[in-house]
Amino acid sequence: MLAIPEGVRVLLERLEAAGYEAWCVGGCVRDALLGRTPEDWDVTTSALPEETMAVFGDQALPTGLKHGTVTVKTGDGPVEVTTYRLDGAYRDHRRPESVAFTASLEEDLARRDFTVNAMALDLRRELRDPFGGRADLARGLLRCVGDPDRRFQEDALRILRGMRFSAVLGLEMEAGTSAALARNRELLRKIAPERIQAELLKLLCGQHAKEALDGHVLAVAAFWPEVLPMVRFDQRNIHHCYDVWNHSTAALASTPPVPELRCAALLHDIGKPSTFTLDERGVGHFYGHAPVSVELADGMLRRLRFPNEFRERVTRLIAWHDRDIPRTDKGVRRVLRLLGEEELRLLLALKRADNLAQAPAYRGRQQEIARGEAILDRLLAEDACFSLKQLAVNGNDLKALGLRGPAVGRTLEALLNKVVDGELPNEREALLEFVTES
Ligand code: ATP
Ligand code: MG
């Protein structure tokens, strides 16, 4: 088990010295038991929020007093300290109507979502685990605390959290939890899009995301019904060994866990069902599916309130996923100019994953992708010019030649195009000469 960081230990010691109980709780205990470094360490205590404030003085900030939370600055960063709490009745399948403080650690643990998240650990490494979270972790099981139907109905976000924990931690959903999740999946519609977005991103980046998505695709459809036509959609094409959904989640599983890339992998072919045609030989085609995928994905990402840059990157990757890999220096420079290095590398990763999720006989594409990437690496090593920033002249140079207003920008763009296409060297003299002569 991982050790509690020094800053958190000091915090626990100070609460105990003041006569209160204090425990690390939730995700950090689960992760410490798994030997994973926790994102953050949360503390639960018998001290009331104002008592915690008094213990830590100006080290403490009242960040969520209504819910009993005080944030304490420590040598290991800010730590949330929350008073033992009971949740009142739930309204709208979202949040408790009220919270009440309690003197009982066990009651606080009972309000938590999954057994693996309902453990507490103190300074002396005593573990409180009233729901068998440790045994579930050892068996690789994700199980609700208490009656799973009730727990998903209280707060429907737990449906997606459950899928997230199974995607990230590789936990299998215990049968009763899984069945209740399926029964209650439609309640996810009650949940604020921002909360769905946050859990979904973590889910998509999990090492076991494919299994979690495949296992509960109908829960995904509660907020993204657009995925349904992909499920069991037979592609009728020898390039493909999977239906559209399984192809998409297989592609996702072959990408590195970059959120935009994972999203693009999941949605790159979502336009396929509606663009399907069958030729006279009975072979399926999907002409023009990429722009349809872009349009659907754009709407789906907007609905979940993804930031604009995120949405634009995902939809650009989808728009480009089906284009050929450039095979020449000029071709690669052109794509670099349009996408930049970072995004071009994501595109190559998407194309690689897309191909890996096709029938094994068509994996020859991997070499084409590798050749494109080798050109990219060489061009970058040679400091090839593909952006205005790198151009050997700038706007002031052109103004010195007498250009004014929009002509400056237009000329810079034109010069860059010529450099990218290899028609002019990226050299100041040559570029300025070209401008004076034309
Ligand atoms: P992460 O590693 O992503 O931080 P986590 O388990 O710590 O995962 P948080 O969202 O940080 O998850 O929540 C901290 C703890 O609070 C959880 O471990 C769980 O005990 C409890 N919790 C959080 N959200 C809920 C919820 N919707 N219902 C019940 N308990 C919850
Ligand atoms: Mg956490």
Low-confidence stretches: none
**Mean pLDDT rating:** 96
- State the strand order across the main sheet: 3-4-5-2-1-10-11
- Give the helix proportion (percent range): 40-55%
| Sheet with the most strands, sense and barrel status | 7 strands, mixed
Q: What integer value in Å does the Rg equal?
A: 27 Å
Shape verdict: globular
Number of strands: 15
- Measured between the Cα atoms of the first and last residue, the distance is 71 Å
Give the helix tally.
Answer: 21
Structural class: alpha+beta
Question: Which ligands are bound?
Answer: adenosine-5'-triphosphate, magnesium ion
What is the percentage of strand-forming residues?
5-15%
Give a structural overview.
- The structure is a single chain.
- This protein has 21 helices and 15 strands.
- The mean pLDDT is 96.
- The longest helix is centred in the last third of the chain and has 28 residues, at 329-356.
- The strands form five sheets. The protein has a seven-stranded mixed β-sheet with strand order 3-4-5-2-1-10-11. Strands 6-9 form a two-stranded antiparallel sheet. It has a two-stranded antiparallel ribbon with strand order 7-8.
- The protein is α+β, with helices and mostly antiparallel strands and 438 residues long.
- Strand 10 (120-121) and strand 11 form a beta hairpin.
- The protein binds adenosine-5'-triphosphate (ATP) and magnesium ion.
